[in-house]
Amino acid sequence: MRDPLSVLTDAFTAFLFGKVETTRLPVRTSTGQAQAVYLPTAAPGLGDSGVIIGREVYSGKGYIYDPFQLYGQQLPAPHWLVLGESGNGKSALEKTYVLRQLRFRDRQVVVLDAQGEDGVGEWNLIAQELGITPIRLDPMAALDMGIRLNPLDPAITTTGQLALLRTIIEVAMGHGLDERSGFALKVAHAYVNETIVERQPILTDIVEQLRHPEPESAEAMNVDIEDVRAWGLDVALVLDRLVDGDLRGMFDGPTTVGIDLDAPLIVFDLSHIDRNSIAMPILMAIVGVWLEHTWIRPDRKKRIFLVEEAWHIIASPFVAQLFQRLLKFGRRLGLSFVAVVHHLSDVVDGAAAKEAAAILKMASTRTIYAQKADEARATGRVLGLPRWAVEIIPSLSPGIAVWDVNGNVQVVKHLVTETERPLVFTDRAMTESSSDLTDDALRAAELEAEERAAAFVEQHMGDSESTVA
User: Coiled-coil intervals in this record (predicted)?
Assistant: First the structure.
């Protein structure tokens, strides 16, 4: 029972000031208005160790990403897929990412540079800045003692050589080798490796052996020598294209001496190859296997393999299978594969849909720049993006992208420093239009783009009504 004096005091206080305790009624409002009452919150970042990419648009905090730091904890695989229409900042992101990674002493990068202008690849300026000569694969230059990569280089295991030869032939033919053709190739390769020891075997040796197989090859399988020759005819015709056709000179000789595989950056300049020809996937297959056997080593270095126009890899079943094996093998040795693709539909609707899905599944990091609405919806379905992210993609300004790092989805503004700017914006149209702007105008344009993106994110993530008590 309460003390009479306390009861009297409470009654007197209530008479003077009204009820001591009041009940606060709930207020119905929106989260956009409630942000004035509650402190703003943001999704957790990826940590503070690694390479800074830019600024997270919604919270304004720095965005740091490094697959080697995140692997095993927040990332099941260190591989990365970059998507988006041309002119939205994919190239600038790749180049600044590589430049910033190379500041770490235990990093090494290989770039397959499939684009360029004025006779050089897009990465030529960066290579020059670092004192590196790109490995320019050019059929015309190869005829004049240019760069050669030998698929039969002794640095590649015999098993790897045979797998590479099969892949080259299957890509060119558009279908797998049947058992008889595969047998003819196998015995020709074995004979060449056994008999040519004083020099590097070359493709001409394989073609010659397919055209004129040894009797022992037929006797081993109890078949006629003419049958073995007939089985290997189509294979010989395909390989002859690398020896005496439009790709001659690049692969039909010993590997060029002096290619520095210990340089921090290795650039394969493929800009002289027709991107829409069958030559490009063949070239990528040869480079991929050659690197697998000569570059990736258990020396505790962290390696990045960046491929421009990567749909040439993912869209071909045979090349995709080859790279799928490379990704699985390389993951154990510290390899991060970066695939740059304009449209996901280029690969998921093609002949290599199964292989493409397997490679995409390995990419735990996905960065999506602006796309048309239909393409954004298709991308969202394939990658499992949240609805708000799919809706924002078509309105993203250049330099701003949706990042999905194993389910951690953020909208990120990529920042380029003044030192990096002349190295990464290599497109002539881009540099000329940018030079017309003053520094203040350029910063104002970037700020306006950030504000538009932040407003769009707020609209789609924070406009649902809620009840605040």
Answer: none
Distance CA 28, CA 265 (A): 58
Q: Is 89 part of a structural domain of the chain?
A: yes
pLDDT at 434: 41
Bridge partners, residue 112, by sequence: 268, 307
Residues 206/152, Cβ–Cβ less than 8 Å: yes
Same domain, residue pair 431 and 315: yes
Report the pLDDT value the prediction gives residue 205, as an integer from 0 to 100. Answer: 93
How many CA atoms, within 13 angstroms, populate the side-chain half-sphere of residue 284? 32
Q: What is the DSSP string of 123-160?
A: THHHHHHTT---EE--HHHHTTT-----TT-TTS-HHH
Q: Give residue 115's identity as a one-letter amino acid code.
A: Q
Q: Determine the residue type at 424.
A: V
Residues in the chain: 469
Whether 467 maps to a domain, the answer reads no
| 467 sits in which H/E element | strand 465-468
Q: Domain for residue 380, yes or no?
A: yes
Q: Are residues 160 and 85 in the same domain?
A: no
Q: What is the pLDDT of residues 419-461, one digit of tens each?
A: 999 888 865 443 434 433 344 544 554 555 556 555 555 554 4
For residue 306, give the H/E element and its range: strand 302-307
- Residue 65 contacts residue 51 (beta carbons within 8 Å): yes
Structure tokens at 147: 């760069």
Q: Is the domain of 299 the same as that of 426?
A: yes
Task: Give the whole-angstrom CA distance, residue 96 versus residue 296.
Answer: 23
Residues of the chain with pLDDT under 70: 1-2, 5, 7-25, 34-44, 117-118, 140-145, 246, 346-352, 426-469
pLDDT one-digit tens code per residue, 188-239? 999 999 999 899 999 999 999 999 888 887 777 788 888 888 999 989 988 8
Three-class DSSP category at 333? coil
C-alpha closest to that of 284 among 243, 239, 318:
318
Predicted structure pTM score: 0.77
